[in-house]
Target: DUF1611 domain-containing protein
Amino acid sequence: MIGKEKKLAIYMEGNLDSIYAKMGYGVMRYSENPIVCVIDSDYSGKKVNEVIDQPFEIPIVASVGKAIEMGAEVMVLGLAPTGGKLPDTWVNDVEKALTLGMSLVNGLHDLLGERFAHLLNTDKPEQVIWDVRKPLTDYAIARARASALTNKRVLMVGTDMAVGKMTAGLEVYKWIREQGISSDFLATGQIGITVTGKGIPLDAIKVDQACGAVEHLVLEAQDKDIVFIEGQGSLLHPGSTATLPLMRGSCPTHLILCHRGEMSTLRDVTDIKIPPFNEVIKLNEAVAHACGSFPKAKTVGIAVNTSKLNESEALQVIEKIEKETGLPVTDVVRFGAEKIGRALL
Amino acid sequence: MIGKEKKLAIYMEGNLDSIYAKMGYGVMRYSENPIVCVIDSDYSGKKVNEVIDQPFEIPIVASVGKAIEMGAEVMVLGLAPTGGKLPDTWVNDVEKALTLGMSLVNGLHDLLGERFAHLLNTDKPEQVIWDVRKPLTDYAIARARASALTNKRVLMVGTDMAVGKMTAGLEVYKWIREQGISSDFLATGQIGITVTGKGIPLDAIKVDQACGAVEHLVLEAQDKDIVFIEGQGSLLHPGSTATLPLMRGSCPTHLILCHRGEMSTLRDVTDIKIPPFNEVIKLNEAVAHACGSFPKAKTVGIAVNTSKLNESEALQVIEKIEKETGLPVTDVVRFGAEKIGRALL
Model:
């Protein structure tokens, strides 16, 4: 974990405009830490919003040394490539950052804590290598302890993987917080963990301990009136297991269904069609409730990711789903989170 | 893995009558390997059925040396204690067995392969230490490949953990095989893996890979007309994740629901009542089908574990559930598996 006051540099050397840069973009969009710069020598001297279609006026510098001059205390690796390996071309800069006293935040599958431990300065106890994806502890077997809590527990679910559950959750969470409501966002994936400074890497946890890990997370935040639990996977995806431990560990009281506006099938398994929304909602609510064994979870809205559509297409899709389900539907990034947020008050 | 012709000794020193002996009993009941003896010096000279209430006429001997004299080639550790550690008092005999050339089968969480590797005879390549609970490989992300198969895939599900899903599955599988039908039992826990010589330790696999591991298992057995997939956990248990990857990986066509006759609540979480059977059946079928995304799985029968009831109580419970659900219901250990097996033909 990294204190909220620590100054970050996001390391994206050669990759600021890569399709694997979503870790970096997530940190730019949602981290509460000050971000002093992005490191990518291809674009040094410019600002991020001059290079890519993202609204961040963050200066880009050419080197680790320059980032430290600007006050950076923590280097965040901004890439999430398939396979999750540290690129060989990054090793020198990682070693340099550690030698010069920076902390390192690593969301790759490749764990770096042991590999580079010898570079940590022994007289600097606050310098750490944080492998975000490394499960921290053993968790107790879950016992539905969350069902005894009186707060609202909002679980993000999806029609597919990678439809924007984290982003939608963070946007609605931000809106709720702005209303002065005591609230928290509970991260379950590496980007969310990096952004919020805490959470659990659910995908990397053993089947046996998955529910217990989620329960632990939810109990830790029990003093908050509304908690948002970052979703993973989908009940409809043949490769996805995470929905069940998320539901059992958190005992959700509310669900927000997330969907990618242009999709009529799963992205990876295109012969699986997205079923009618009302059926998907019913299935998710049935699993959460489990024949009365757990709290009744009500679906309060549908967050549609319309980033691949123009504005008029986006509005059409939203209207169609709204008519079909009778629920508040919107793209919370494009049109704001109020419409869905209000349904939680 | 251990060849089916290898002769086994089951090591239960000081524990033949322990509550943690279910690993040993499972091997005695279901292993296809010849079992030459049980090792427990407390009862040497007797047979197993003279010591405990289990129908096995297996001789008990006092030492590893004696087992080897009788032809034993493989020593199976017969204990599954809470925590899964190797008892200190067993270390000497494990070392002795390995030094004298026996293979070792270990179902404990404690992995022994590395710890004792130096004792393996380098000129004896068939001598192995098999840590049954160690996940073997990385698995591909599941893509519902099993849904394209034309065989019957029977998944065991439960109203709770530890209700006898493995035993019921093995009994129905045995009956089906006796009818001359090409069939297989796919193990997903340490006892089933030991007994059948293959399978996946689902609880120890990462959430990310769980569906893929099950899919791998089911695809390997695709030439069989009926496959039984050993169940784990329960959709109703707050600490259980395994039902979802089992359903997604296997795309079951049939379900057998397992229940412990005397229970009206979960065993570990007693404030969760077992819901009406028809609702449990509906929920399991709904999750398996996922709004039409996967094959429709039909529940063909209910296997009730009545080991805690006398025969008249057992028959009463069975009749009651049969009336409630209209399905074939029986205790497959006590009354035979034919009643449920026939429903699969």
